[in-house]
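Quick bug: Peroxidase output formatted oddly.
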Amino acid sequence: MATSSGSCLIISLLVVVVAAALSASTASAQLSSTFYDTSCPSAMSTISSGVNSAVAQQARVGASLLRLHFHDCFVQGCDASILLNDTSGEQTQPPNLTLNPRAFDVVNSIKAQVEAACPGVVSCADILAVAARDGVVALGGPSWTVLLGRRDSTGSFPSQTSDLPPPTSSLQALLAAYSKKNLDATDMVALSGAHTIGQAQCSSFNGHIYNDTNINAAFATSLKANCPMSGGSSLAPLDTMTPTVFDNDYYKNLLSQKGLLHSDQELFNNGSTDSTVSNFASSSAAFTSAFTAAMVKMGNLGPLTGTSGQIRLTCWKLNSS
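Here's what came back:
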């Protein structure tokens, strides 16, 4: 009996030790806003400087970086898989064909600068997450705390790009797509407010301006001048009022039926999100508070941490084995 009791005690101690080790491992794998404070203290300022310079040259880049981060996080989590330049990867899929090439160039340029200062330390996933935030700030928008410590994927996930809601989405489809990522209706409406900056190609809104009835007639007519029914690559601002300033005018446009995309106007079309749109249109503070909270939630989708994935040395390709 003494031997049996001793064995039980040893087993119990082992269970406690293993549980403690697992707990510590989990804790160490969590994201932190101070992740690079010691290992690469210049990382944040390098990213900010690179983004500010790029946005000063082309304001659209701020929106493009934000969109790139969104397209990364909605496919297998925020792991920089969108940055891989595979011939059959995510970049080749329809939802990503209209991404601004300049955004990729900016991230790759910043990565090279960060690598020169801190080789093999800062992930591309973290650089993209911070660059998206800094792009918003550069265009007059709010800041938020970006948690860090993501690692980069070791592959691309083209089949999962179907998780990205297309510009033809109905309200129900939008709600379902965001719910799949544990983002609620308020998060969805707030994140859609990213369309207060940037532009969209004609092929993304031609159906809305020619076929839908929930659009301001004069607004639709003005867009048809540069966007034929057959579509095309000509650009139009997503926010007709202040396209290069991050504000709440996007929602004011929706109240006037001047949403550029079908999916934009779906947010205010006698549906369940009408009141949220009205609230954001009347209160800039309400919008920015919801937007920053939603960005933090989105930025924490499925990160690779600890020893998972890798820290790519170049964002557009995997490290050599």
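Actually, after a second look the formatting is fine. Strands lie at 199-201, 235-237. Closing.
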